[in-house]
Amino acid sequence: MDMRQFTEDHRSILALVEQIRCDLDAEPAHSPESLLPRLHRLCSKLSLHLAIEDDFLYPHLMDLRHSPAALLAERFRREVGGLRQELDAFADRFASARDIRREPEEFRCECARLIEALCNRIQREEEDLYPLAGDV
Question: Which domain of life is it from (predicted)?
Fold first, then answer.
């Protein structure tokens, strides 16, 4: 399977994550307007990417019963498969600058936690799953 598009998506997502991290470090909690466009782009891009992985890639690999790729895809789906729902809940909760201003510390904490989970998933997919998927 050709994994290039998945890898390119990861690079693009990680670039947005890095910009958001810089914004979080630089912007005061009471000024989220500059952060929102990047955050919305990330959520949009990530939502599509996770849907393709969760609804196509992982099930396709799991159909290769008892192969190393199938076993790893099943394990990853159990361990990191809830990220899409977490992203949706985060995007709903902090959809506007007003939402962020209402709970600035909770926003920063949730955003950092979501970014950490995302980076963990990407790293694990790149190091472990994608090489196996590329062989099928």
Answer: Bacteria
What would the two tokens of residue 81 be?
Answer: 């498969």
Distance CA 76, CA 116 (A): 16
The residue type at 42: L
pLDDT of residue 46: 94
How many domains does the chain fold into?
1
Q: Token pair 């361990």 is at which residue?
A: 79
The Cα–Cα gap between 114 and 89 comes to 11
Q: Could you list the residue range(s) of the whole structural domain that residue 106 is in?
A: 4-134
CB 113 within 8 A of CB 8: no
Residues 6+ apart with CB under 8 A from 43: 87, 90, 91
Query: At residue 120, does pLDDT exceed 90?
Result: yes
